[in-house]
């Protein structure tokens, strides 16, 4: 088994996420609970800080979160770091996740953030502005974010050729980014080295840029951190 192969599990299936978000949507409607912050607040705030430092809001960047769930990461970028809501977009293949994020956005007064149902592996995200649409460019995003989605996809079923579902993920990232644009990913299943191996490839057109530091622990003589957050940049040709 190489670095990008895992045994499949229900966490990699759409049915699993549909049932998670059907429950979370019902709970939001019933008691106003916004649901889980995946990997907790620390990793989310670290991603927000990294973004503020490297892709400042003053440049009015276009930002896409892949597998945006309840949308908390995008709400935080807007509410705490002043990113324009019109430039923020979340996609998720679970329509109840999108419904949940839209409902929370309405309650938070952030309804200009765009949330769309979209399978990242199969479809391109919709353009977020007229300018975006008229340019007809697919590679129009300044920053792509992933918190837990690559991990989930890696647990999906292999295709008929025996390929793990994540095999096409890095090239799809490269395809959507502007030259010089960034991809920031946080994972709990892949180490920093594995992420570098999987994403910094000729096919994706991405190169390693930087990583976020987390407290480390030692177990069985090995040093490690609970999460890996790594940033890549699309090569300017
Ligand atoms: C671990 S959750 C993380 C959610 C969110 N990023 C967060 O931090 O709270 C993984 C998310 O990826 C979504 N997802 C999985 N595969 C996807 C795909 N192929 N296209 C779009 N979304 C996907 C799931 O529906 C789920 O919302």
Automatic annotation (TrEMBL):
Localization per record: Cytoplasm
Keyword annotations: Cytoplasm, Methyltransferase, S-adenosyl-L-methionine, Transferase, Transport
Domain Methyltransferase: 61-201
EC number: 2.1.1.-
Chain's gene name: EFM4
Principal subcellular localization: cytoplasm
Gene Ontology terms: biological process: methylation
Function statement: S-adenosyl-L-methionine-dependent protein-lysine N-methyltransferase that mono- and dimethylates elongation factor 1-alpha at 'Lys-316'. May play a role in intracellular transport.
Name this polypeptide is given: Protein-lysine N-methyltransferase EFM4
PANTHER family from the UniProt entry: EEF1A LYSINE METHYLTRANSFERASE 2, PROTEIN-LYSINE N-METHYLTRANSFERASE METTL10
Native organism taxonomy: Eukaryota, Fungi, Dikarya, Basidiomycota, Agaricomycotina
Similarity annotation: Belongs to the class I-like SAM-binding methyltransferase superfamily. EFM4 family.
Highest taxon above the source species: Eukaryota
Record-level Gene Ontology MF annotations: methyltransferase activity
């Amino acid at each position: 088994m190489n670095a990008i192969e895992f045994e499949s599990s229900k966490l990699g299936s759409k049915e699993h996420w549909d049932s998670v978000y059907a429950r979370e949507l019902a709970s939001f409607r019933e008691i106003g609970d916004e649901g889980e912050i995946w990997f907790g607040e620390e990793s989310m705030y670290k991603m927000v800080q990294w973004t503020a430092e490297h892709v400042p809001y003053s440049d009015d960047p276009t930002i896409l979160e892949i597998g945006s769930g309840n949308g908390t990461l995008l709400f935080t970028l807007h509410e705490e770091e002043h990113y324009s809501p019109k430039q923020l977009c979340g996609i998720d293949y679970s329509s109840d996740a999108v419904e949940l994020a839209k409902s929370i956005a309405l309650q938070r007064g952030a309804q200009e953030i765009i949330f769309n149902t979209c399978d990242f592996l199969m479809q391109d995200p919709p353009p977020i502005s007229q300018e975006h649409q008229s340019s007809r460019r697919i590679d129009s995003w300044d920053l792509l974010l992933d918190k837990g989605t690559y991990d989930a996809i890696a647990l999906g079923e292999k295709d008929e050729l025996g390929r793990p579902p994540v095999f096409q993920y890095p090239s799809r990232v490269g395809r959507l980014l502007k030259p010089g644009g960034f991809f920031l990913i946080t994972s709990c299943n892949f180490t920093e080295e594995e992420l570098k191996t999987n994403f910094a490839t000729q096919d994706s057109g991405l190169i390693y840029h930087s990583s976020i530091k987390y407290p480390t622990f030692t177990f069985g003589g090995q040093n490690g951190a609970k999460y890996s957050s790594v940033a890549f940049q699309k090569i300017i040709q």
